[in-house]
Design a protein that fits this description.
The protein is mainly alpha-helical and 166 residues long. Helices cover 66% and strands 5% of the residues. It has two domains: 62 residues; 59 residues, no CATH class. Strands 1-2-3 form a three-stranded antiparallel beta sheet, with no helix packed on it.
Length: 166
């Protein structure tokens, strides 16, 4: 299941970051076009088709435009992250969460419980309960249900999880 989770999350990340890659390509094309137009202006100056003062104005405009495009490209490139390492680490951590919890100190146990149950635990004198389960954890632990196949004669039982924690 780890490979399935990793593949699904990787696909989703690639789909969501597609627009960012398209923005990067658009900025690169604009940058290339601006550089070509600046080179054309330089050729016109060398062929005495424009004055030096006109070239300075053109060059100033294009340099500002190129500087802005380069900074936007750097900003967009910083946002592009390869999540495969983080994803594999997160999946392997979730797959052995029970062992991590058993071997953890009290502070780490609180962190683990806090990440699974984002809202506070409530003790009513007899039982502990939580308001809700973290959606990511609920999805990961219920994803294998989507792969189960109903065989003929098999009864599918629906079990609602209680918000009580034993």
């Amino acid at each position: 299941m780890q490979e399935v989770y990793t593949a699904l999350l990787n696909e989703e990340f690639k789909e969501r970051s597609r627009y960012q890659r398209e923005d990067i390509m658009q900025v690169k094309e604009s940058l290339e076009k601006a550089n070509i137009e600046l080179a054309n202006a330089r050729r016109l100056l060398l062929n005495d088709q424009i004055e030096a003062s006109e070239y300075r104005l053109i060059m100033g405009d294009y340099e500002r435009q190129i500087t802005g495009l380069e900074s936007r490209l750097i900003e967009l490139s910083k946002q592009t992250n390869n999540i495969e390492f983080l994803l594999s680490k997160a999946i392997s951590t979730l797959s052995c969460l029970d062992t991590l919890y058993e071997n953890a100190d009290n502070k780490s146990k609180r962190n683990i419980i806090g990440s699974i149950y984002p809202e506070k635990l409530v003790f009513d004198g007899f039982h502990y309960r939580t308001a809700r389960l973290n959606e990511a954890v609920a999805l990961i632990y219920s994803l294998d249900k989507g792969f189960s196949e109903k065989k003929s004669g098999q009864i599918e039982s629906k079990i609602d999880l209680s918000t009580l924690v034993t």
